Amino acid sequence: MVEQGSQRKRPNILVTGTPGTGKTTMSSALAEAIQLRHINIGELVKEKNLHDGWDDELDCYVINEDLVCDELEDIMEGGGNIVDYHGCDFFPERWFDCVVVLQTDNSVLYDRLSKRGYTESKLSNNVECEIFQVLLEEAKESYPEDRVIALRSDTIEDINMNIATLTEWVGNWHP
């Protein structure tokens, strides 16, 4: 799955999904369990100013995808990264050996996003995104299908099972 000539000794994993599906929670725990670097794109964008300003309507930064990719290029070539972000179509395909799409039941997702204080329009946009499996389709269109895996993320038990599944996958990965 890695381009010929790659020097990567450890895989890169992209964890994507609708906001509220548990990307950061699972990515942090997985990174700790298997000693990979966790890169939260939302935090990186804020920390390094990799954005083109604030979108009041969507209540978030407008990320500059080119700046994000430039920032990550060398890190990703080295391997051993778990990247966590709700989008996936702008990252170079060559970066990722596994693309995980977390999926959550709509009622669970609604409750999680409500607790975050999401506005009604932001809530409904994200729940609709999950209903129509927008992120899964985006991942399947952006990466070879054999690299894309959809995992359920409704409970702590689901997260633990996902960590076990991905730990096993990393243990079996060969460049």
UniProtKB/TrEMBL annotation:
Gene3D superfamilies documented for this protein: P-loop containing nucleotide triphosphate hydrolases
Region annotation NMPbind: where it falls in the sequence: 40-63
Binding site for ATP: G20, G22, K23, T24, T25, R116
Region (Disordered): 1-21
Pfam family, one: AAA_18
Catalysed reaction, written as an equation: AMP + ATP = 2 ADP; ATP + H2O = ADP + phosphate + H(+)
GO biological process, one term: ribosomal small subunit biogenesis
Localization terms from the record: Cytoplasm; Nucleus
Regions that span the bilayer: none
InterPro entries linked to this entry: Adenyl_kinase_AK6, P-loop_NTPase
Region annotation LID: where it falls in the sequence: 115-125
Keyword annotations: ATP-binding, Cytoplasm, Kinase, Nucleotide-binding, Nucleus, Ribosome biogenesis, rRNA processing, Transferase
EC number: 2.7.4.3
GO molecular function: AMP kinase activity; ATP binding; ATP hydrolysis activity
GO-annotated cellular components: cytoplasm; nucleus
Family recorded in the similarity comment: Belongs to the adenylate kinase family. AK6 subfamily.
Oligomeric form and interacting partners: Interacts with small ribosomal subunit protein uS11. Not a structural component of 43S pre-ribosomes, but transiently interacts with them by binding to uS11.
Function: Broad-specificity nucleoside monophosphate (NMP) kinase that catalyzes the reversible transfer of the terminal phosphate group between nucleoside triphosphates and monophosphates. Has also ATPase activity. Involved in the late cytoplasmic maturation steps of the 40S ribosomal particles, specifically 18S rRNA maturation. While NMP activity is not required for ribosome maturation, ATPase activity is. Associates transiently with small ribosomal subunit protein uS11. ATP hydrolysis breaks the interaction with uS11.
Protein name: Adenylate kinase isoenzyme 6 homolog
